[in-house]
Design brief:
The complex is a heterotrimer of chains A (281), B (127) and C (207). Chain A has 281 residues and is α/β, with parallel strands linked by helices. Helices cover 34% and strands 29% of the residues of chain A. In chain A, helix 5 runs parallel beside helix 6. The chains are: A alpha/beta (281), B mainly alpha (127), C mainly alpha (207).
């Protein structure tokens, strides 16, 4: 659905350089990375808000920055600090969405607003951040796009609100032929939602893995300097120095469980993965 | 169908799912021709990746417990008591084989292994 | 484009206090027979307001999201030009009819006043829209000054003409044929040039 090939985009002090990146149909794909690593730039390229200096960004098989209006209708974008003007109410937004999208479903829109207890006639400026986050997603879902792009949709929300949003997204995916691309700092959200994820670091894609492999096969080891020397490093993906020795990210924890049963090992998880890869020099 | 998934457990989630479904089939909680929830519905309800659910379903299908019909879903197969029993037996055998191999790698001989098993069984019956 | 129109119409509907004020002012001026000022003021005010509405689509924070809505650049520009010229023109026309019906003026005089107003409500967006796209936030003060100058200019011309016993209306009517042929063409050229410039500026924008 989304395909980037040999894409380069430079700004003063930062360059995005992505050999390959893709989002497959029918999957929920996550993007993780520290602030400033290039996530937002990537999203802007995919939605055609910016153009690459080199390479191709294909959205629905079409160049992203010259997307025809008919294909733009198939995208739903949710940004954390950008949306409909705050002087609008959800009722106003309904009129606007209806005019913009043929596939807009007012029944679904209203049902979701009611379900999430979002008042229809209150201006968006009066909405809390949690309400606003839910509203933006509902507005995006209600025109049944094929592709949903979410930039930090759950930031600043409590766990209950996050769960409700994830459920909205999971229900959206029940219809085949759709995809979601989501970036988030909240690892548990991504681990419970995504099928696969990419890690971006300083504008480059450094890792692509399925969440299933991360939690089912990857492992985190904590070892001392001397233990590291005696370790078979075959399945070590990354390592970082810690006060206690080293933290290792391994792609096959069974191997280490069986061969080094004395070494405690944890399941792989996104936060540790990020820290270890970032700390690997 | 209800599953209890423990994300923090070291057992891979797809194994947990497969184990529980197999058990439910054996204990007749799930019957032949029952439709399993869709991959996406499972993913949503248990907050896991859809690929993980698919892995579990694929595994069960390769073992002959379920069958996926394109466009319809995944159904529990008509299996005789024996077949279910056999499959679970086979898995226990595999686990034993793996444990024996490990024990041998650590330098234990056959006698020590048998002693250990007895010890564990006694300990088990006491608890 | 329909979605863009609806957004602007909703926004206009929301400006209740402003619209009320305008209506009040209009009533005041009608009853005081100061037609020229009122005409230039109302139309100019509305066309300035509506021309600036393109800002939401150009400046952050909302530009990023709004630009993902399904419209192309040409539609965005067309809608902005249309609403900031046609809406004030429509209001002006309705005003003229009301004034005529109330017997405050004759139709010829009204036609002349309307033409001047139409001309300036085409001119104003033609200046404001490209400037807003190009200079975004910085354009605000510069534009306010330009518009003030234009408005004052129009008033001064009409008042000076009145003082010196020159009937602006007569001089315009006598040169009517010249103006009728020359002026609309000039305005269209100006409009087209502005549109092309806006499109060029807009194409360079990233969000």
């Amino acid at each position: 659905m989304i395909e980037l090939t040999n894409v380069k985009r430079s700004y003063p002090g930062f360059t995005l350089d992505i050999d390959r990146f893709s989002v497959e149909e029918g999957t929920i794909t996550g993007v993780v990375g520290l602030n400033g690593s290039g996530k937002t730039t990537l999203f802007r390229l995919i939605t055609g808000l910016a153009a690459p200096d080199e390479g191709s960004v294909m959205t629905f098989g079409h160049q992203a920055d010259t997307l025809p209006v008919s294909l733009k209708k198939e995208i739903g974008a949710v940004f954390v600090d950008s949306g409909f003007p705050k002087w609008m109410t959800p009722a106003d937004v309904q009129s606007v969405l209806k005019a913009f999208y043929d596939s807009f479903d007012p029944a679904q829109y209203n049902q979701l607003l009611e379900q999430e207890k979002l008042p229809k006639d209150k201006m968006l400026s009066m909405y809390s951040s949690g309400m606003l986050a839910k509203f933006r997603i509902i507005a995006a879902l209600s025109h049944s796009p094929r592709f949903l792009l979410l930039d930090e949709p759950t930031s600043g929300l409590d766990v209950a609100a996050r769960r409700e949003i994830l459920e909205l997204l999971q229900n959206y995916m029940m219809t085949p032929g759709r995809s979601i691309l989501i970036s988030s700092h909240i690892a548990s959200d991504l681990e419970t939602l995504c099928d696969d994820f990419w890690m971006i670091q300083n504008g480059k894609m450094v890792l692509h893995e399925s969440v299933d492999a991360l939690t089912g096969e990857y492992g985190i080891l904590h070892v001392s300097d001397s233990q590291l020397e005696q370790l078979d490093l075959a399945a070590v993906r990354a390592k970082t120095k810690t006060p206690g020795g080293w933290d290792l990210l391994v792609s096959d924890r069974k191997f280490y469980q069986e061969n080094y049963p004395a070494l405690p090992i944890e399941k792989g998880n996104i936060d540790d993965l990020l820290l270890i890869v970032e700390g690997d020099h | 169908m209800q599953l209890q998934i423990t994300p923090s457990s070291m057992t891979p989630i797809y194994e947990q799912i497969a184990d529980q479904i197999r058990l439910q089939i054996k204990e007749k909680i799930l019957h032949p021709q029952d439709l399993l929830p869709s991959v996406r519905a499972c993913a949503r309800d248990y907050h896991i990746s859809a690929l993980t659910v698919k892995k579990a379903y694929d595994l069960l299908e390769s073992e002959g417990f379920v069958k996926t019909v394109q466009g319809k879903g995944t159904f529990v197969c008509q299996l005789s008591e024996n077949v279910i029993q056999e499959e679970m037996q086979r898995q226990v055998e595999e686990a034993f084989e793996s444990a024996i191999a490990r024990a041998k790698r650590l330098g234990m001989n056959d006698e020590q292994i048998i002693d250990l098993v007895q010890l564990l069984l006694e300990g088990d019956s006491l608890s | 484009m329909k979605g863009l129109f609806i957004s602007d119409l909703i926004w206009l509907k929301r400006q209740k206090t402003m619209l009320l004020l305008l209506a009040l002012l209009t009533a005041m001026y009608i009853f005081n027979d100061s037609l020229s000022f009122m005409f230039s003021f109302i139309a100019l005010f509305l066309s300035v307001l509506l021309s600036r509405s393109i800002q939401d689509y150009i400046t952050q924070p909302n530009a990023r999201f709004l630009q993902t809505l399904p419209f192309d650049l040409r539609s965005l520009l067309m809608e902005k030009y249309l609403i900031s010229t046609l809406f004030p023109a429509a209001v002006t026309l309705i005003l003229a009819i009301v004034i005529f019906v109330m017997g405050k003026s004759d139709w010829n005089e009204l036609c002349v006043l309307m033409s001047v107003t139409f001309a300036s409500s085409v001119l104003i967006p033609s200046i404001i829209i490209p400037m807003t796209i190009r200079y975004k936030d910085k354009s605000q003060y510069m534009l306010m000054i330009i518009v003030a100058i234009v408005a004052i200019g129009i008033v001064m011309i009409t008042d000076t003409a009145q003082e010196n016993g020159i009937s602006l209306i007569d001089s315009i009517s006598s040169n009517a044929s010249l103006l009728l042929n020359f002026l609309p063409a000039l305005i269209m050229v100006f409009l087209a040039g502005s549109f092309m410039l806006s499109r060029r500026f807009l194409a360079k924008e990233e969000y």
